[in-house]
Amino acid sequence: MPSLILLALVGLAAQLVDGSLGMAYGVTSTTLLLAIGTNPAAASATVHLAEIGTTLASGVSHWRFGNVDWKVVLRIGVPGAVGAFAGATFLSNLSTDAAKPVMSLLLLALGVYLLVRFTLKGLRTDRQHLPLRKRFLAPLGVFAGFVDATGGGGWGPVGTPALLASGRLEPRKVVGSIDTSEFLVALAASLGFLFSLGSQGIDFTWVAALLIGGLIAAPFAAWLVRKVPGRVLGSAVGGVIVLTNTRTLLRSDWVGVGDTPTEGLVLAAIALVWVAAVTWSVRAYRLDLAAGRGAATTAHGPAEDADAPGTSSHAPQAVDAESASPVAPRA
Q1: What is the C-alpha separation between 116 and 67, in angstroms, rounded?
Q2: pLDDT 10s digits, 243-292
Q3: What tens digit of pLDDT does each residue of 93-112 get?
Q4: Which stretches of sequence are listed as region Disordered (predicted)?
Q5: Distance of CA 213 to CAs 57, 96, 127, Å?
Q6: 327 has which bridge partners?
Q7: Neighbours of 171 (CB within 10 A)
Q8: C-alpha–C-alpha distance, residues 40 and 87, integer Å
């Protein structure tokens, strides 16, 4: 029972992060399952089965809050489903541990770009009227879906940064569209695992625990993403990507300093930079908001003081609609 409660809490926390940042449900949940000895294919299958329910709930919540671009959902979700099915079939027969450092390096570079871009320059709005093209979304969907199925998570870490970096969709709609399209990816990946593995190694009680936690968090996460400013959200997403992928690289055979004081120091330093970046983004957002209010006040002019010289504290004179000249009020 304690393990099921822990799984439910992990599902809740993972969905809260995923629903507000567009990533991390699969990564968080799969990490826990691997830590307790589940084999990679069964862990990914368990998480994706739970995600069928959590992504459906998350998608409905994001839709209700106006966070979804349905054209983007279809153009990236359908290719993503194809990639996820292929990835599930591939993982069922082959480990992809050797590919993790390469993937982490690419995601780390993109995470650094987002962290710097949103922290120092804020949200790019000059391209948001431009449509996202199929020739960009389709390959991205296939690639992200494949990575998601083989790595137990990756749809958000690949898809969210790419759409944010394009500058053609506001952050809350990026998160909402990625989360909604993930339903198709989770469904296809689950079918791929079931066809290849059957139910071998899948504990459906664990699936239910993860699902319950995610369902509880989904509506609140969809509401939260509307309240977080785009600039702050971009910095937060960038920090998540940098921190998680640095950890993966440090523990890879390329670097080999996992579970050492060096790893702790590096991650602590990145965490401090991340906190400073988000703090800076919040401060910059408030300054921009104050400047915008000041500009609006200047444009409309200050309100007249009723007691100021040259003004009357009595009721204003009536104006004749046709002559626009003052007329005496009738008794």
Answers
A1: 25
A2: 877 887 888 777 878 778 899 999 999 999 999 999 999 999 888 888 87
A3: 765 565 567 666 766 776 78
A4: 298-331
A5: 12, 29, 37
A6: 318
A7: 25
A8: 13
For residue 23, what are the contacts with CB-CB under 8 A and spacing of at least 6? Answer: 17, 155, 156, 157, 160, 178, 237, 240, 241
**Residue among 242, 272, 236 at smallest CA distance from 105:** 242
What is the Cα–Cα distance from 317 to 323, expressed in whole angstroms?
14
pLDDT averaged over the chain?
75
CB 204 within 8 A of CB 86: no
Between CA 19 and CA 222 the distance in angstroms is: 6
- Residue 57's nearest CA partner among 223, 191, 302, 170 is 223
pLDDT of residue 229: 76
User: What does residue 301 show for φ and ψ, rounded to 5 degrees?
Assistant: 85, 150
The predicted-structure confidence for 195-215, as pLDDT tens digits, reads as follows 877 766 677 777 887 788 777
Amino acid at residue number 282: V
Task: Pick the closest to residue 183 from 311, 54, 286, 288 (CA basis).
Answer: 54
Q: What is each CA distance from 85 to 44, 170, 247, 311, in whole angstroms?
A: 12, 29, 28, 74
Can you tell me the distance from the alpha carbon of 35 to that of 176, in angstroms, rounded to the nearest whole number? Answer: 30
Q: Which of 39-42's residues contact partners 24+ apart within 8 Å by CB, and which partners?
A: 39/201, 40/91, 40/95, 40/152, 41/91, 41/92, 41/193, 41/196, 41/197, 41/201, 42/197, 42/200, 42/201, 42/202
pTM value > 0.70: no
Pick 21 or 128 by higher pLDDT. 21
- The conformation of residue 302, written as its DSSP 8-state character, comes to P
Amino acid at 32: L
What is the phi/psi pair of residue 39, to 5°? -70, 155
